[in-house]
Amino acid sequence: MPEKTPESRLKIAIPKGALYEESVALLGKAGLDISGLDNPGRQLVLYNEGVEFYIVRPTDAPVFASYGGVDCAICGRDSLAEAALEVVELVDLKFGRCRFVVAEPALAEGAVEDSYQRLGVIRVATKYPHITKEYYDILGVQVEIVKMHGNIELAPLCGMAERIVDITATGTTLRENNLVIVDEVLESTARFVGNPASARIDSRVRELAAQLKRVLQKDEAEADKTRG
Amino acid sequence: MLPVTPRGFKDVLPEEARWRERITTDVQRVLSLWGYAPIETPTLEVLDVLEQAGTLNQTSFRLFDSDGALLVLRPDVTLPIARMVASRLPNVSQPLRLRYVQRVFREVESLRGQAREFTQIGIESIGMSGAVADAEVILLLVEALKACGLERFSLAICTVGVLRDLLDICVDEGDVDAAWRAAVLAAFHENNLVDIETLASSSRVDPRYGRAIRTLPGFRGGLEAIKACRALVDPLGCTGGLDELARCYEVIERAGAGAFVTVDFSVMSTFDYYTGLVFEAYAPGLGVPLGSGGRYDSTLGAFGKQAPAAGFAFVLERVMHALLGQGTVPEASGSEPAVAHIVFDEDDPAAAFLEAARFREQGIRTVLSSGEDDGNA
User: Fold this and answer.
1) Å from A92 to nearest chain B CA?
2) Is-contact A168 A149, C-beta < 8 A?
3) What pLDDT does B340 receive?
4) Taking the alpha carbons of A148, A151, A153, A159 in that order, is the dihedral positive or negative?
5) The pairing of beta strand A179-188 with beta strand A98-105
6) How many domains, chain B?
7) Do A200 and B288 touch (CB under 8 A)?
8) Which of A107, A210, B193, B261 has the fewest C-beta atoms lying within 10 Å of its C-beta?
9) Minimal CA–CA distance to B262: which of B296, B314, B223, B232?
10) For residue A29, what is the domain's CATH number?
11) Kind of pairing, strands A10-15 and A51-56?
C-alpha cells in the first residue's frame, strides 16, 4: 500500500540543450523505453512504456523534481546549486562537464584589485546570482551582483561590470571576447536527482539510480579496456 | 487592486475552514485517546532563549519589539515545548504526553510558490525513552494520519546513531577534522548522496569507515535492511541506535502498522537536534513530506532539565492536498446551509430569538430572517 501502484508511469524530467542527447542515451542504456526522444519535435511530454518523459529547460529541472512535478530528473550541478531547492542528489552522471569560472577582460589585469582597494566593492555580472554570492561570501569579498540572462561577456566589455561568473566548457567564447579566467568557482557535471518523497516511497527511483551507476561503471571499465 | 494578504499567507473561507475543523477535531480525538494533553505556546519567542537548544532555522521571521528584544515567530513547536516544559514543569517526574495544533511561520524567498504560515499538528512524548516509546510515536502518527482520512501514506524511519558513531570515530582516530564532519552532516541534510560519496572517499578517511558512510544511505526496506546495516557497521563498533530501531520496527510490525513503515537510512535530513530515531511521512503524489519527527534526548537538557523526548509534527495543509489528490475529501466538508429560517417581527424581534432558541436546543441550525432576503448563510 505505501508503494506507488506499479501501473503508474515513472515521471522523469530531461533537460533540453547541451545535456539532452547524452541523457537520453544513458537512460536508454539503463533499459528505459526512450522511443521518440531522438526526435520529439514540439512535443514536451512523451508517454512511453512504464515511463513519462518531460522535456524541460535545464534551469527548471530542479524545480520539477523538488516540487514533485516529476519523480526524478537529470540536471546539471550548476542548475542545482543555483536553484538551491530540496531534491535527493543520487548519482553523478559524469557527463556534461563544465566549469564555473570568474573572468575579466584581459586588458584589465590588476585593475579590479586596484578598484576594490579604493572602492571596497566589485561589480559582478552573472546568470547565477546564488552561486556567485556564495562564492564571494566564502572569500569575504564585497560584491554587487548584477543578474543577467545571457551574453554575460558583454558586461565587462562595455564597463558595466568588472568581472563575470559564468560556465564554460572549453573557454572558447571567453577567449574570443578577450576575457581571461582569474579563478575557478566550481565544476559541474550532470546529476540524477530524485524528488525527496518519490526517492523514499517509490522504489523505482532508487532502482533506476542503481541501474545508472552500473551502466556508468560498465562504460568506464570498457573505456579503460580500450585504452589498454 | 484588491486588498491582498502578504505573500504566502492566506485567508480561510468557510468551506475550507469547516474541513480544517473536521480534520483537526478527528485527529485531536485520537491523540487525546492515546493520553496526550493539549497545550499552547506563544506565537512569539525570545530568539536567544530558543537558540540555547541549537541554531534556529535561518528561515524564521525575526523582529525587534519596543524593548529592543529580538523575537522570533515560532518556526516550529518542538523547541517552544521543550522550553515550556523546562521552565514551567521542571519538577514533573512522570512521563508527559502533550499535543498541539498551532500555526508556524517560515520565511521563504519569493516566487517559490510556498506558504509562509502553516498549521502543524503534533505531539511530544517527554520523559520516556527506548524502543517502545519510539514505537508509540510512530504508531500514533500512523493513527493520526488515518484519522485525517488518508488511506495511502508511508513513513520512512531510521536512526542517526550509526552515522554519529561513524563520524565520531573518523574524527577521533582519523585524519579528518570537524569541518569534514560538518560537511558530511550538511550533505546528509541536503540529501546529497553524490557529495556524501565524495567526502567519504577522501584519502584522509579510513576506507572501512568511508565505505560504511557511503553505503549507509542506500539501506532501505524492512528488518533485513537493519540487518544488512548491522553487518556493515558491527565490525566497526558503530551500531548506535540500531538495537532500538530493530526493536521499534518489530513492535510496529506486530502492532499491525508495518505496511505503512519502511526503514530508509537516507532520511537524516532533519538532523539538527535529533539523537536517535528520525522519520518522515510521505503521501504518494505529494512532492513534499507530510511531516517528520524523531527523538531529541538532549534538547531539554539545553534548557536546564534533563529528560528524554520524542515527537512528531505534520502539516495540516499538506494533508489536505494529499486528501484531494487521493480523492478522499469527506462529504461534510462542503457547505452546510442553515436549515431553519425564522422571520422576525420588527415590533417584537425577541420573540423570534426565543423561538429560534427552541429549535437550536434540538440541534437544528436556525437563523433569523427579515423575510425580505432569503437568509442564506
Assistant:
1) 6
2) no
3) 87
4) negative
5) antiparallel
6) 3
7) no
8) A107
9) B223
10) 3.40.190.10
11) parallel
